[in-house]
């Protein structure tokens, strides 16, 4: 009888231990998701990082937890009035392979816009805490090019560590890097206008101190590109995407002297969506590039290409 009692106690302890590692249910998941949702305000957003695993599938791309936090911070900088709620407080929870798939309709408000998106989270329980391992919206949702989503911030490059772009920008055969100092956004007055603390300019700075910083006026969100050597001077040229909610413009700079090699290449992203660098810029010969931009012709936006000879 003594041994039976001991084994009974051990069995009960094992059951209790299993319940700690694999919680029974939906009540705890609902509470966790509600807390995550409530943290989507500018005041509470610094605490969002703690809801995520170290590596997250974030809107179909792999992000580190710190990158997710940076993307959320950029969202609230661009839209300080942003709010979201779970429509009708309705969550559908399905247990899948030890994790919980949570689906719901997310209602967002920003800049006077209200929209509903079928959304999902995948939540796991690890080391005594719930953590998010996937976040996204249904591929069938409308308006997925809205400026509130990570793709509008060109997330993979824009929020990478220190936003460093490597290349030989002074032609000495050694690798340098460039990075961007962006302005701090105070508020967004409408889809195309923001107010910054101080001047609303971005500055490209280089690790090589012999290269002068390059200032781009009116740019508050950006992405850098290494365009390689375009003018045969032995140094890589640098591309700067000035990203706005409804457009983006590619500036092509000679990094050695900060001079623009051509007029900025303008793309109307409302009409011409999902264009990549190769779609708007190509090196097509010695000291020769072909650029494609959005132009308005007879009231319609069209893509036009032209060849530019570089000096």
Descriptive overview:
- The protein has 311 residues and is an alpha+beta fold.
- It folds into two domains: 20-153, Nuclear Transport Factor 2, Chain: A, CATH 3.10.450; 176-309, no CATH class.
- Helix content is 18%, strand content 43%.
- It has helices at residues 2-21, 26-38, 65-78, 155-158, 277-280; strands at residues 52-58, 61-64, 83-86, 92-96, 99-110, 113-126, 129-137, 165-167, 176-181, 185-188, 194-196, 201-206, 214-217, 222-228, 237-243, 247-254, 259-260, 265-268, 281-285, 288-297, 300-309.
- Strands 1, 2, 3, 4, 5, 6 and 7 form a seven-stranded mixed β-sheet that branches.
- The chain is elongated.
- InterPro entries: Integrin_alpha_N.
- This is VCBS repeat protein.
Give a quick precis of the structure.
By secondary structure, this protein is an alpha+beta fold.
CATH class value of the largest domain: Alpha Beta
CATH topology of the largest domain: Nuclear Transport Factor 2, Chain: A
Helix and strand run: HHEEHEEEEEHEEEEEEEEEEEHEEE
Separate helix tally: 5
Q: Report strand %.
A: 35-45%
Shape: elongated
Main sheet characteristics: 7 strands, mixed
Secondary-structure class? alpha+beta
- Are there runs of 5+ residues with pLDDT below 50, and where? 1-22, 155-162
The Cα radius of gyration reads 25 Å
The proportion of residues forming helix, as a percent range, comes to 10-25%
Mean pLDDT: 84
What is the chains' assembly state? single chain
Number of strands: 21
Number of discrete domains: 2
How far is the N terminus from the C terminus?
95 Å
What is the CATH architecture annotation of the largest domain?
Roll
InterPro entries: Integrin_alpha_N
Protein name: VCBS repeat protein
């Amino acid at each position: 009888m003594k041994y039976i009692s001991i084994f009974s106690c051990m069995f009960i302890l094992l059951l209790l231990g299993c319940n700690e590692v694999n919680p029974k249910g939906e009540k705890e998941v609902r509470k966790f998701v509600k807390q995550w949702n409530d943290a989507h305000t500018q005041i509470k957003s610094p605490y969002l990082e703690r809801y995520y695993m170290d590596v997250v599938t974030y809107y179909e791309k792999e992000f580190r937890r710190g990158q997710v936090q940076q993307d959320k911070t950029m969202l609230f900088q661009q839209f300080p009035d942003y709010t979201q709620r779970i429509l009708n407080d309705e969550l559908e929870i399905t247990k899948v392979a030890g994790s919980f798939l949570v689906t719901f309709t997310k209602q967002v408000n920003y800049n006077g816009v209200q929209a509903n998106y079928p959304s999902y989270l995948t939540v796991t329980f690890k080391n005594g805490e719930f953590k998010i391992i996937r976040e996204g919206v249904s591929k069938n949702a409308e308006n997925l090019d809205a400026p509130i989503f990570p793709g509008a911030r060109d997330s993979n490059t824009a929020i990478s560590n220190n936003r460093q772009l490597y290349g030989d920008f002074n032609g000495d055969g050694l690798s340098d890097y460039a990075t961007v100092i962006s302005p701090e956004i105070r508020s967004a007055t409408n889809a195309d206008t923001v107010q910054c603390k101080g001047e609303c300019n971005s500055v490209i700075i280089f690790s090589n101190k012999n290269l002068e910083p390059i200032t781009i006026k009116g740019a508050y969100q950006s992405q850098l590109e290494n365009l390689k050597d375009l003018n045969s001077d032995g140094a890589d040229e640098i591309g700067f995407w000035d990203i706005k909610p409804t457009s983006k413009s590619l500036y092509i700079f000679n990094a050695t002297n900060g001079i623009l090699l051509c007029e900025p290449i303008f793309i109307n992203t409302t009409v011409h969506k999902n264009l990549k660098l190769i779609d708007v810029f190509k090196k097509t010969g010695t000291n020769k590039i072909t650029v494609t931009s959005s132009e308005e012709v007879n009231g319609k936006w069209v893509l036009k290409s032209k060849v530019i000879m570089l000096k």
